[in-house]
Specification:
Structural class: mainly alpha
Keywords: Isomerase
Radius of gyration: 21 Å
Biased composition (Basic and acidic residues): 10-20
GO molecular function, one term: chorismate mutase activity
Distance between the termini: 47 Å
EC number: 5.4.99.5
InterPro entries: Chorismate_II_sf (IPR036263), CM_dom_sf (IPR036979), CM_II_prokaryot (IPR002701)
C-alpha cells in the first residue's frame, strides 16, 4: 500500500524556519539519539551490578535494600543535577531494586 501523505521537509520535521537550522537540529538530534542509547546501556549495566550486590547481601543474610546507600545516591544526583536529579535517582533506584 502506498502512502499518499505528503513528505515533510526537514524544516517541518524539526520545527525550524530555515533549512540551515533544520540541518543543525537534525544532526544534534542524531547525537542525542546516540547518547540516549549509551545512557540506556549504562543503566542496564548499573542494573546488572546492582543485582550482584543485592544477591551478595541477601546471601550473607542481609536485606535487599540498603537505605543509607540509597540516600547517598539520592544526595549525589541532587547535588549534581538539582531537584530533577533526585527524581532521576529515584527512578534509577527503582529500576535497580528487586531484580535478584
Amino acid at each position: 500500500m502506498t502512502s499518499t501523505a505528503p513528505t515533510k521537509t526537514a524544516a517541518e520535521r524539526t520545527g525550524a524556519h530555515t533549512d540551515e537550522a533544520a540541518s543543525l537540529i537534525g544532526g544534534a538530534r542524531a547525537r542525542i539519539d546516540a547518547l540516549d542509547d549509551r545512557i540506556i546501556g549504562l543503566i542496564q549495566e548499573r542494573m546488572a551490578v546492582s543485582a550482584v550486590i543485592q544477591e551478595a547481601r541477601i546471601t550473607s543474610g542481609g536485606r535487599r535494600v540498603n537505605l543509607s546507600r540509597e540516600m547517598d545516591v539520592l544526595s549525589h544526583y541532587s547535588n549534581a543535577l538539582g531537584k530533577p536529579g533526585t527524581a532521576l535517582a529515584m527512578t534509577l533506584l527503582e529500576l535497580c531494586r528487586g531484580r535478584v
